[in-house]
């Protein structure tokens, strides 16, 4: 993936934060593994629609920036952060000044997202 396609994916994630909703929450997975029923079956029994998990749009952007699912644990966030830093480090793009500038901005955004998620997940 090129640096510019990465910028496009980040912009797309920031402009439409509500599009990446989870279909199931943790309780649904528990129900599926214990009795084979998910949210749809549970809602039909009680007569009410399933509730979407409450999401913080700011946290959604940080998770999208690090390309991990919403609600991932700190270890997963750290692995993704290190992987993306290795991939987009400005020293790797030092031949082209424009790419180096964009890579520097990407790394700053990755660092900021990781710092904020680290604060909230500890």
What does this molecule look like?
The chain has 122 residues and is an all-alpha fold. It has a single domain (3-20, 54-121), classed as DnaJ domain (Helix Hairpins), CATH 1.10.287.110. It is 66% helix and 0% strand. Helix 4 packs across helix 6. The longest helix is centred in the last third of the chain and has 25 residues, at 97-121. The two termini are 31 Å apart. The model is unreliable at 19-25 (pLDDT under 50).
Question: What's the CATH class label?
Answer: Mainly Alpha
Count of domains? 1
Radius of gyration: 18 Å
H/E element string? HHHHHH
Please summarize the sheet with the most strands.
Answer: none
Q: Regarding quaternary structure, how should these chains be classified?
A: single chain
Our measurement of the CA-to-CA distance between the termini, rounded to an integer number of angstroms, reads 31 Å
With helices defined by DSSP (H or I, 4 residues minimum), what is the helix count?
A: 6
Instruction: Assign the CATH architecture.
Output: Orthogonal Bundle
CATH topology type: Helix Hairpins
**Average pLDDT, all residues:** 77
Share in β-strands: under 5%
